[in-house]
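Exercise 3.2. Students should predict the tertiary structure of the chain below and write it as structure tokens, then compare their answer with the key that follows.

Predict this chain's 3D structure.
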Amino acid sequence: MTARPGAAEPCSLCRGAGGCDLPTWEGEIVGWVTCPDCGGSGVAAPPPKIAILHHAGDGNTPPVRVPATVELAERYPSAVVLLGLECPEAVVLRLRLGRDRVLVCGAATDTVEEAVAVCDEIRRRGINILYVSTEPGHLSRAWIISWILHRGRGVQVLKWPSAPGARRDPLRRTLIDICRALWHRARI
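Answer key:
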């Protein structure tokens, strides 16, 4: 069960028995394809639609998150970078990645508002993979908020840590924000 170099995973048609490597993705059906190695045919699905939620700073902190977001965006050239507020980091990201790949979706004042602000854009674009990119001390809270808002809607929420920051989110703040995210989830 070997796949050719660069293959995502073995073909779902022959499960690699023929050595083929048609990429598979559980998603929307778009048509029939024939495996070039085994000759089998089956259903093809589009590649995943990826977005990166860049958790921006308050403008008073150094932009330590930008290099990690740029690295991830370069790994996925079709991915769009979403921010919940206009900030200096948005300007830097536009310069590095281009204006068309960086979207500001609101004027959020905190993590929950930022995650809520990008929900409509994620739905509108049909995003099925969302990376949350922020500093490790804040990543768990930012991730759980996004996970609550998108669970059961076909969006896989993943973590992407940036350079370590100076803070770690307090448990009390995390619990309050989880409750706020659940409240917003019921309304969107």
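Discussion points: The longest helix spans residues 136-150. Helices lie at 66-75, 88-97, 111-117, 119-125, 136-150, 171-185.
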